[in-house]
Each structure stands twice: as C-alpha cells, then as structure tokens.
Amino acid sequence: MSSPPSARPRAAVVGTGGIVTGAHLPALTAHADRVDLVAAVDVDAGRLDSFRVAAAEAGARDVTGYQDLGAMLAAERPDLVLIGTPPALHHGQTVAALEAGAWVLSEKPLTLSLAEYDAIAAAEEATGNYAAVVFQHRYGSGAVHARELISSGELGRPLVAHCQTTWYRDTAYYAVPWRGRWESEGGGPTMGHGIHQYDLLLHLLGEWTEIRAMAGRLVHDVESEDVSTALVRFESGALATVVNSVLSPDEVSRIRVDCAEATVELTHLYGHRNEDWVYTPRPGLDDEARVKRWRTPAADVPSSHAAQLGALLDARERGERPAGSGPAARATVEFAAALYKSAFTGKPVHAGEITADDPFYTSMHGNHPDWSPAR
Fold first, then answer.
1. Digits of tens for pLDDT over the chain (375 positions)?
2. CA separation for the pair 305, 132 (Å, rounded)
3. How far is 278 from 226, CA to CA, in rounded Å?
4. Do the domain assignments include residue 124?
5. Are 61 and 209 members of one domain?
6. DSSP assignment of 224-247, as one string?
7. Distance CA 251, CA 238 (A)
8. Are 127 and 185 found together in one domain?
9. Helix (H, G, I), strand (E, B) or coil at 93
10. 177 and 294: one domain?
C-alpha cells in the first residue's frame, strides 16, 4: 500500500476526442474541488485547441496542450492521467504514465490481451502506482445496492442470469480505420461494447468457472466478430447467458439475475439510475417492508465517469488500490479471452486455463486460422 498523498492531485488527459470531452471533462469538472486539470495531449492540434476551449468554458483555464505524451509527462509530472485514446494505445500510454509517477484511469479495454494486462501489473508493482479501467456501471448507486443485496444473501442464492448488450452499428461506424481490427481494437463487440455489461455481471455474481461460447461475423466485413454468445457457470453454481451484438436495431443493455427470493433486473442503454433497477419478489413472499428495502437505495447516483473518478480519488487519498484495477479488472479481461477461446475452438474454457503458453494469452484471436489477421 502506498502512502496517502497530501497535495491536491494534478490531472492530465490523453486524447481529446468525444469520450474525453463528453465524459472525462464533465467528471473532472464535477470534482473540481478535489483535482486540477493541468494538461491535455493529442496529436491533432485542432482537436487539442477545441478541447482547451471546452475545458476553459468548464472552469479549467490553465490547461497546457501537448502533442507528445512523453513531453507532457516530463514537463508536468501529473499525479493522475486519464486516457481516452484508441484501444491499441492504452497499454503503452498506461505504462509510461505509471513510470512517470502517475495513477491512471483508462478507457476500456485497458489492454488488448492478458499479456498486456500482466505487463501493466508488473509496472504497478515496480512503481507503486495504480492503473484502473473505466467500468462506470459498477459505480451507480443501483449497482452498489444490488451487489450488497446479492452478496449478503438478502435475495437468496443466485440461480439464473442473463446479460445482454444488443446494440446497432452500421458500416459507417467501421469506416474508422482502427475499428474492427484485432491489432488496433482487440476484438469486436465482446471487447468494445458488451464488456461493460458482463463486467457488471461479474461484479454482481463473483468468480466464474466455465464458459462455452460462439461468435460470428454475420454482417460486417471486419477481422473480428460482430456478435458473440456465451453460456457461463459461476463458482456459486449460477448459470448465465451473455450476448454481445452490434447487429440489433432495437438497442438495449440488460442484466437479469434470478435469485431464490427475488429477480433483480436492470434495463438501460448507456447508463443507469435507481429507477432502471426492478425487484420482483418470488411468489408467496409477503413482506412489503423487506421488498421496499430492496427497491430504495439511500441515494440516486447515476452510473458515470464522475462516480468512478470520485471513488478513485477516495482511494488515492487513502493510499489504497482503487476499485477497477488489479485482479478484479484482470478477471474481466480473462473472461473476454476465455469467451474468444471457447468460441473459436468450440471447446469449454475454465477459469485460470489461459496461461502464458496459450496463444489466447497474447491475443484475443489466439492465432486461430479462421480469425487471425493473417487468415
């Protein structure tokens, strides 16, 4: 555990596109009393200038612009680096920031493979700094409440679950050069879209033990998949289905967990509030006071980058590893690798099976002849 810092942290953003301007900047603004935005990095000078204007309008008036990450790290020595660049850059930029003395909060996926993730873990160990990945759905009050109810046994033993990310992306979406390619995106909707929902499912249900999956390239002319499905067994014995799609005109994000005492269901698209969670007691359960406790968290905190940034700043003040980093975040990357391995090999995959000598450890396509970039 590192020592709690005393000074107000100085933050920098890397990448100034839509996700940083639309999500990270509002998060930093929401915590302007706790953190100072001092620098921004982007190779596109015009985009960088636009971001600096937006930052100034949001109250951060002394943001210095850089077109090189190394130059920014050397000049500014920030305490916190928020990364919103294309996925293939996350690993290298995260390691560079850690080695420069900063904590990191990176957009998903933090890495494109388990090998890259373990390299970041090694950099954390060497530097004493931490790298977290943006999994903001864990941090809404509805998710916090549901996890407490499930883990405490209040809803009874989890039995059956469904996790659904059925979104729609057209051909114009894949015209962006880095999308749909293994070396630049790491995968299709399994890595870039559904990862938020099944990360939340893992957060709610705990460790998984076995996965059996399928994947297809049904519509889009891309290297990776455009749909995947999986059957999952959890350590608790619960069974779940997971669907990740970019082929679905009726877009929805949904998690449903059927426990012995009640069903808990979340339906939303890109973010949730308390009202998006529904609890249905089992037939014959006649205890309105108990059911009311299920339905009424103390506060209504939307899932958001701001909620996660607040939790990270809390952890930094305590000198503790932040949630969304370390083994918990690695488990989500391992789940993705296992889903791909099962889908491409046609065999079940067990937790812990993908070790350093496995081709799916170094890439999500595992050099499979039907799916690797050289196919």
1. 454 565 899 999 999 999 999 999 999 999 999 999 999 999 999 999 999 999 999 999 899 999 999 999 999 999 999 999 999 999 999 999 999 999 999 999 999 999 999 999 999 999 999 999 999 999 999 999 999 999 999 999 999 999 999 999 999 999 999 999 999 999 999 999 999 999 999 999 999 999 999 999 999 999 999 999 999 999 999 999 999 999 999 999 999 999 999 999 999 999 999 999 999 999 999 999 999 999 989 899 999 999 999 999 999 999 999 999 999 999 999 999 999 999 999 999 999 999 999 999 999 999 999 999 975
2. 12
3. 30
4. yes
5. no
6. S-SEEEEEEEETTS-EEEEEEESE
7. 26
8. no
9. helix
10. yes
- Provide the CA 152 distance to its chain's centre, in angstroms: 24
Neighbours of 4 (CB within 10 A): 11
Q: How far apart, in whole angstroms, are the C-alpha atoms of residue 127 and residue 368? A: 36
Helix, strand, or coil (residue 171): coil
Q: Residue 181's domain spans which residues? A: 137-302+332-350
CATH number reported for the structural domain that contains residue 241 in this entry: 3.30.360.10
Residue 340 lies in a domain: yes
| Cα angle, residue 22 at apex, residues 18 and 24 outer, rounded to 5° | 105
281: in domain? yes
As for how many domains the chain has, the answer is: 2
Query: Pick from 81, 102, 133: which residue ends a domain?
Result: 133
**pTM of this prediction?**
0.96
Which of 77, 107, 133 lies at the terminal end of a domain, its last residue?
A: 133
- Number of Cβ atoms within 10 Å of the Cβ of 240: 24
